[in-house]
Amino acid sequence: YIVKVNIADAGAFIYPGSVEDINARINYRNIHLNNPVKMLPFNLRRDLSLNQGQNRQVITMCVVMNDSGDIEDYYLELRDVKIERNISYNECDRLIGRTTSKFNKDLSDLFYLACALEAKNAGKQAYWTKKENSKPDIKMSSSKGFKIIREFMVLYNTLIGQFALDRNIPYVYRYQEPEYITALLKQNGIGENEQIRSVINSIYLDSKFSTSPRYHEGIKSDIYTQSTDPLRKYPDLYNQQLLHKFYFGDSDFPFDYDDFRNDVDYFNQRNADLALMRAEYVRGMRLTKNN
Predict the structure, then answer these.
(1) Which among 67, 74, 77, 188 counts the fewest CB atoms within 10 Å?
(2) Per-residue 3-state assignment (H helix, E strand, C coil) for the chain
(3) How confident is the model at residue 247 (pLDDT cuts 50, 70, 90)?
(4) CA–CA separation, 253 vs 242, rounded Å?
(5) Model confidence, pTM
């Protein structure tokens, strides 16, 4: 199989240091609470989103793989595509397994390959479970369509990190540290019981950013990035801008490695601030409900 994972190419149209880029950096990411915040204004989201019937420029990861989920080759390219059809997760789930059209068959093949990728790294399942438990609004584990998106998102984020590393392209990587309670208990000679183990298994630690690859405990990978959501998350857009400068060579903006490290520190600080804000929001909602 050759699977082409297409990501909207926002980095080609939002120049570093432009008004659009500065505003996106300040907004940082989409936030869905009482007063939703969108990283990009409506006109940019409309013009760059992969909407049905539209022609769009995309960054494509082309993955050559067999039906066991083994990756035999991969390469990156800029492409112009026409979006023939948008479907929901529910519609995708209904179509998978049907062979009445090539579209349905392709969906079924993608689901089969997603299952193969999942089986090759069963350790990820605990990560998804913890993530869903910590963020109830993303409970999608029963959706076949979500499994396709999830597995190929992980594949894209892993392969593009390896791609950047092999070519010495500055890139923003993601990592996740292991939970620390087990080591702490062992260090203090405290034994585990069922209740403690239940608490440990429920701990979800947010990922952090770095300028070089570090092990991601949840994904079980030595290399992982954040690259698949450039219309909603600034680090993803930032990584696309780096690809345009250092790989595609069609964007010429000043780059300083010290500024790059400072940018990664900024991303980590913003993530920590947003995590705290979300926790306070959830706490406030619970208090309101109880009252």
Answers:
(1) 188
(2) CEEEEEEECHHHCCCCCCHHHHHHHHHCECECCCCCECCCCHHHHHHHCCCCCCEEEEEEEEEEECCCCCEEEEEEEEEEEECCCCCCHHHHHHHCCCCCCHHHHHHHHHHHHHHHHHHHCCCHHHHHHHHHHHCHHHCCCCCHHHHHHHHHHHHHHHHHHHHHHHCCCCCCEEEECCCCHHHHHHHCCCCCCHHHHHHHHHCCCCCEEECCCCCECCCCECCCECCCCCCCEHHHHHHHHHHHHHHHCCCCCCCCHHHHHHHHHHHHHHHHHHHHHHHHHHHHHHHHHHC
(3) very high
(4) 9
(5) 0.88
Amino acid at 81: V
